[in-house]
Please model this.
Amino acid sequence: MLHMNLDMDLLRSFALGMELGSFARAADRLGRSPSAVSLQLKKLEEQVGETLLQKQGRGLVLTEAGEILLGYARRILELNDEARTAVRGAAKLEGWVRIGVPQDFAETWLPGLLGRFSRVHPKVRVEAHVDRGNEMVQAVGRGELDVALAWGSFGNPRAEIIARREVAWIGLPDFQRDAGEPLPIIAFDAPCAFRKAAIEALDRQGIAWRHAFASPSLAGLWAAVTAGLGVTPRIAEGKPEHLALLDPRDTGLPPLGAIELALHAAENRLTPPAEELKRLVTEAALMR
Model:
């Protein structure tokens, strides 16, 4: 019996769309048109001989077959990416690399990426720091980190903008704005690119606001939103399942636009392990 090989590109579009909660966002991230991604999904359904998605309200949800395939797709893609890394690392890197990342990524794809990197390069010692962007950028400048991903350039002329993410209002599913009261915002204290984007958008539309809750951790922000203390401006990636992306058309909140994801690297030439981890992190950020 001949077996048909599943197309890796189709699986990646499928998995990315489910991860982002929108195939339109996946199309934008992959540099494709929404219609091209729709065709990919239809082709994937033809390859497996099953319907993978079905309409529910205004969105799409996985069928039973879709849930099964999604689990396999993630495993296949992870093994594929690990194999590529292993081949590139055939020379067996050694040394030490220090990386800083935003909390959004530390709670989603970073642990898996670092695990794969360590398996391929067991002689490389990796130290990962999770902190606010301005703190990590300063740490790179002091030579305490080799590479850092941060939301924004923070005035660093050497920062490399590697991606952009749409910023969304996130709150409880039943959130309703009280037009007679200042909008309660949940965000990090300044400097914070998300807080800045929200305040500028609200000020442009003349919507009063107040900083209702601040926390040094992303988990603290999610807890405050869950408690109904307000709404927060963040990316969709890593959003707790019980919270919702709030549609500006339904809530009267202003669109927030996109935020830049910048890569900050040490001024001196990076070591081979740092260069390889930088490449992998950059690639992962672009594909997510």
